[in-house]
Recover the amino acids of this structure.
């Protein structure tokens, strides 16, 4: 209910398996559509259905905690591509390394998420928390709170009749216990991509500070005052000292005691409804072009653009007159190939499907 509280304050002033082209076996891609998500994956129907149910349940928990009605329809369903390996993830994000478990991205052409299905689901929950926050509570938040909020809710555990909030991620906790902490002034002032001494503890400390605020009603009011102050243009460090009455040294000492004491979590009894959804099987072209077409939407390094266009041409040739193949071919020619050659496949796509939005 904390966000319902802060929203009422702020509204008046500011915020109202590995695939490759050479593999002869075709994966069977499916599309699952629920109230708030569209999920694409080549897993079996039962596994896909369970995954989408988990997403809907997580969204429902966030809405419950933030005081939002659970039955208000979303303006746009979030597409998520659930892949089987790092190699598949790299089909979307050119050059992605093996350490990347997933990502969320918003561009001029699309907003979507990609995740490796057998990796830790905390990553996807973290990214969806960002989407949820900015979609429903857009505001000038400090960087540490943007990440701390996502970290705090990424570890939610959900059962059919209850959910648990406030658990810790073991990797983050190990950094807090064994590594030197970054300076509190740096934590409050910097974005996560900005480097500073001991910045490896940025995310763990952002989680800890958020947990400290969220675990007590009085501290929630302090957090609300701090966010309002920062949103109005105040210096983050000075705003924190005003809101909490603590210097940076005392805040650091307070968090150390809190981290080594009783980190409480909350178990909330609430029925999580079964989410209605429809599942359809996609044509064979999805195996070759579904992920590759998403790559075209997020940008490709200059030295890889010609090769990307050539790959799309080769894959599209395997699926003549297929809508996805026509879309991807026109898309690739428009961005990285011959723009004049983009018109023919896109005109053909619209002849086949006049209401095709992307086309």
């Amino acid at each position: 209910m904390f966000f319902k509280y802060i929203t009422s304050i702020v509204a008046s002033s500011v915020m109202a398996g590995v695939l490759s082209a050479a593999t002869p076996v075709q994966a069977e891609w499916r599309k699952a559509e629920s109230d708030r998500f569209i999920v694409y994956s080549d897993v079996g129907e039962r596994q896909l259905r369970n995954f989408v149910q988990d997403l809907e349940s997580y969204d429902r928990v966030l809405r419950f905690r933030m005081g939002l009605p659970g039955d208000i329809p979303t303006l746009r369903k979030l597409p998520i591509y659930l892949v089987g390996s790092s190699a598949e993830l790299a089909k979307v994000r050119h050059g992605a390394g093996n350490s990347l478990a997933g990502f969320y991205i918003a561009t001029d052409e699309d907003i979507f998420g990609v995740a490796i299905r057998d990796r830790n689901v905390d990553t996807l929950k973290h990214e969806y928390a960002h989407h949820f926050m900015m979609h429903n509570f857009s505001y000038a938040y400090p960087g540490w709170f943007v990440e701390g909020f996502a970290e705090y809710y990424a570890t939610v555990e959900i059962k059919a009749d209850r959910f648990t909030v406030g658990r810790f991620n073991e990797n983050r906790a190990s950094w807090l216990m064994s590594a030197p902490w970054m300076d509190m002034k740096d934590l409050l002032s910097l974005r996560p991509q900005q480097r500073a001494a001991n910045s490896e503890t940025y995310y763990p400390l952002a989680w800890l500070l958020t947990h400290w605020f969220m675990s007590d009603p009085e501290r929630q009011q302090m957090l609300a005052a701090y966010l309002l102050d920062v949103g109005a243009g105040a210096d983050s460090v000075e705003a924190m000292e005003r809101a909490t009455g603590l210097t940076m040294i005392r805040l650091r000492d307070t968090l150390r005691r809190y981290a080594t004491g009783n980190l409480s979590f909350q178990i909330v009894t609430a029925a999580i409804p079964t989410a209605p959804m429809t599942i359809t099987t996609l044509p064979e072209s999805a195996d070759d072009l579904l992920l590759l077409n998403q790559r075209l939407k997020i940008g490709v390094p200059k030295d890889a653009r010609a090769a990307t266009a050539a790959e799309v041409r080769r894959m599209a040739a395997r699926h003549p007159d297929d809508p996805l193949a026509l879309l991807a071919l026109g898309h690739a020619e428009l961005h990285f190939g011959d723009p004049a050659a983009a018109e023919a496949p896109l005109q053909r796509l619209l002849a086949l499907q006049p209401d095709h939005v992307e086309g």
User: Anything to note?
Assistant: Strands lie at 30-33, 37-41, 78-83, 102-106, 111-116, 157-158, 162-165, 266-269, 278-281. The CA atoms of residues 290 and 324 lie 7 Å apart.
